[in-house]
Write a structure and sequence with these properties.
Elements (H helix, E strand, L loop, with lengths): L1 H34 L4 H29 L1 H18 L6 H29 L5 H18 L13 H12 L1 H6 L15 H7 L1 H27 L4 H26 L4 H25 L2 H15 L2 H12 L5 H30 L3 H23 L50 H7 L8
Length: about 450
């Protein structure tokens, strides 16, 4: 155990610092854009640019890492993101913000592919669960607490952006100091949306809807908070509540989904998301700030966990040799949703006012509920009966759950296509374990 920790402490420390900076940036950007007079629709366009950039980066990452290696890839990409954050202080138009945010999406996707691949490859079978839990706790806590740092500065000045850039730069130090060997270079991932939809339509549609709903909510939540009369600090605290709720609920929901057809859990989470969205609307109309905060925590515990159960449901159905392609396909479905979702969410706010964001979330979540219930009535499935492990979240998302002990499928944000051979290639169990990475809810 101690030797395994020695192999991953540098990448864990680096990723923790990176996620601390990333979490603060998530709260800072929409508030800065709003302070500069950009419309909610413009903020939605910037969020969509990030989703597009991130999904592009996931597919570019394996080739880049093969070319320069894990250490050089992390160092160069973290430096690029640090520079992009500083350039954001000079962005005053929607185009400039969208370009910079899209480029940071590409770079962060590649960075998270590096970290996911490194951790998964270095965690041995006997200690994998504990190693990945340590990694998950460190990065998730950093991502959860960092938005609260918004209280230490003014979003209209450049100090907070400089702080984000500084922490990004500091994440280079553990990597530069590492003396361990790099993991093997990753391969590509094969995407087959049509084939997976035939096998597990609830998982594919669920992943897409997660992007449609969670993408805009995470991206626009600080603006929503300001729009309903919350202060800067409380608006940023809503992001903390979302992540805290998702962290608390992962294990109970994993336990529950092991004992039933996972589609019941997906439908229940979607229905609960719709109901809590309406609760947020009512609480915000009454000015009940504490109830709004608690409702956001419940919302995060429901909505940010749907993707994990979708991944688990799909992996229950496909053959073990298809798991890597399966999680990559679900990433593609999620990425499509998170690219267009912020546009719809922002449009709803423009038409219906600030609360339109959660009216949109309630309607789309209810549509997912109806779809999954229809599928349950059409096709009966037995209880999953698999074991779950909550493993590393690499983005602002909930950790994913893996239904097979020999395959690690970490979170956020979002699935990384590292170490993923095509379906026709021979793959050892260790390779499959290192490469099947599921990331959700990055924004």
């Amino acid at each position: 155990m101690n030797s395994s920790l020695a192999l991953i402490w540098t990448i864990t420390a680096a990723t923790t610092l990176l996620q601390a900076a990333n979490g603060l940036l998530q709260a800072l950007m929409p508030l800065r854009m709003q302070a500069e007079g950009l419309s909610v629709s413009s903020i939605g366009v910037v969020a969509a640019a990030y989703g597009l950039g991130f999904s592009t980066g996931c597919f570019l990452a394996p080739a880049f890492i093969r070319h320069v290696g894990y250490i050089r890839a992390f160092a160069s990409l973290a430096a690029i993101v640090s520079v992009m954050v500083l350039l954001m202080t000079q962005a005053h138009s929607t185009l400039a913000w969208a370009l910079l945010r899209g480029l940071t999406g590409v770079a962060l996707a590649c960075i998270f592919t590096v970290t996911d691949g490194w951790i998964s490859a270095r965690a041995t079978s006997s200690h994998r669960g504990r190693i990945l839990s340590i990694y998950m706790i460190c990065t998730k806590v950093a991502l959860m607490l960092s938005p609260l740092g918004i209280s230490f500065g003014d979003v209209r000045t450049d100090g907070l952006f400089m702080a984000v850039s500084a922490v990004m730069t500091l994440s280079l130090l553990p990597i530069a100091a590492t003396t361990t060997a790099e993991p093997p270079a990753p391969l590509g991932v094969r995407i087959n949306v049509k084939g997976l939809f035939r096998s597990a339509p609830s998982a594919v549609v669920g992943a897409f809807v997660v992007g449609l709903v969670n993408g805009p909510v995470i991206a626009i939540t600080p603006v929503f908070g300001i729009s309903i009369g919350l202060g800067q600090d409380k608006a940023a605290a809503l992001l903390f509540a979302l992540q805290a709720g998702s962290l608390v609920m992962q294990w109970p929901l994993g336990w529950l989904s092991d004992r039933s057809d996972r589609r019941y859990v997906i439908a229940g989470l979607a229905a609960g998301t719709s109901l809590v969205s309406m609760l947020i609307l009512m609480a915000s109309m009454q000015g009940a700030d504490m109830l709004v905060l608690l409702s956001f925590a419940v919302w995060g515990g429901l909505a940010l966990c749907i993707y994990s159960v979708c991944v688990a449901h799909a992996c229950d159905i496909v053959e073990p040799g298809q798991i890597v392609s399966t999680v990559g396909t679900l990433l593609f479905s999620w990425a499509a949703g998170v690219t267009v979702g912020p546009l719809f969410g922002a449009g709803a706010m423009e038409i219906l006012g600030p609360r339109g964001l959660f009216i949109y979330a309630a309607v789309v979540s209810l549509a997912l509920t109806a779809f999954v219930i229809t599928r349950i009535r059409q096709v009966k499935r037995p209880a999953a009966g698999g074991g779950f492990a909550v493993v590393s979240p690499t983005s602002s998302a909930s950790p994913a759950l893996t239904p097979r002990a020999e395959v690690a499928i970490p979170d956020e944000a979002m699935v990384s296509p590292e170490a993923a051979p095509s379906e026709g290639e021979a793959v050892s169990p260790d390779q499959k374990d290192a490469s099947a990475v599921a990331r959700s809810e990055t924004s």
